[in-house]
């Protein structure tokens, strides 16, 4: 691939020998921190505990291309990490016995630097230059993003064991530096009186920050760690749950961000997707804590109404359709038979036809023994399994309701605010 060829080329230019993977592997090979995630070979990024609750005016700052910048600024490459020079051995990665060369520039890090500079100084600038025609600006934007992909891939070059230049201590060093600088940034923010309410990998959520203090933090990080912090977005408000990576926020231009958006799944029936978007629209209108309380009650009402409608089947059948694409012929599913395949077989039997891969099968969850039928064979709404749709509604909304502390009661089928997990008073104290 292109990156590999470029790196080989750099070796030739510099008159370096291209190392064999086993040569890299014979070097000092120490892992300092065990990965927490299964299947990972080295420690992951840092995610700090969120402060649960609703927070207004939250500025999200992030480190611009954190890992590539670390590669470049900290001279990390397969040959500079644990290099053979004695005098470099004191140049340690924080909290480890891994050292980094201070005599020679690393190939990977140099390459990352060249591409990053071209991206930032040339194409990113051009893509934002108002004096250039729009079409051309967009073209520069495409290049700029393509270069970003390449730079990010460089981290993979040393971090993925399928690559020629894979060297675990180097990959570990990158993530450790990442964890280190984000910790240092939080410490500094605290010291300056900025309130950090959440942090994930390369970003910090800062509540209601003083502009000058924020500027000072950016300057401090730039001077001290040679890394660029920039404002990523501003949330009019954000609601954090006590779980990591589980929150939503409304940006200052009205966009709703939900971490791992559930309602976007394509196999959600139109009716349920509508309810989801109604809830988002409600959330978008919130300007203060008083409105937030009102909106929360409105959302509970929306859910209760949707549940009643599903029970009384006061919804057109079309609105309950789940569309799934057949990925192979129905007789090629041998181990398991997914619901949509069951429905497809029913349709084939009824019409005496064979459906081809790529066919969009439209299914309804029904009360028959299969629990499913193609819409073409559903004669009346009586056949619809309301319970299954209510479950689907709940699972679609699960994440957003968890953040909002709204609990759906499965037996009474009434949504209420979850008072057990966290009292409302406590929740609204922020
Ligand atoms: Zn050295």
Across the major sheet, the strand order is 1-3-4-2-5-6-7
Beta-strand residue fraction:
15-25%
User: Share of helix among residues?
Assistant: 40-55%
The ligands bound in this entry are: zinc ion
Mean pLDDT rating: 87
Largest sheet: 7 strands, antiparallel
Say which CATH homologous superfamily of the largest domain is assigned. B family DNA polymerase, palm domain
CATH fold naming of the largest domain? Palm domain of DNA polymerase
* C-alpha termini separation: 51 Å
Could you say which overall geometry the principal axes of the C-alpha atoms support? Answer: globular
CATH level-two architecture of the largest domain = Alpha-Beta Complex
Q: Which class best fits the helix and strand makeup?
A: alpha+beta
CATH class wording of the largest domain? Alpha Beta
Order of helices and strands: HHEEHHHHEEHEEEHHEHEEHEEH
Please work out how many helical segments DSSP would assign: 12
Structure commentary:
- The protein has 430 residues and is α+β, with helices and mostly antiparallel strands.
- It folds into 3 domains: 2-15 and 39-249, Palm domain of DNA polymerase; 260-313 and 387-428; 317-383, Topoisomerase I, Chain A, domain 4 (Orthogonal Bundle).
- The chain is built from 12 helices and 12 strands.
- It has helices at residues 2-13, 21-25, 66-73, 107-127, 134-159, 168-192, 211-225, 270-284, 289-312, 339-351, 386-404, 424-428; strands at 47-48, 53-63, 195-200, 203-207, 229-240, 247-251, 256-258, 322-325, 360-365, 372-374, 406-409, 414-417.
- The strands form 3 sheets. Strands 1-3-4-2-5-6-7 form a 7-stranded antiparallel β-sheet.
- It is globular and about 80 Å long.
- The two termini are 51 Å apart.
- The relative contact order is 0.11.
- Residues 83, 85, 88, 101, 103 line the site of zinc ion (ZN).
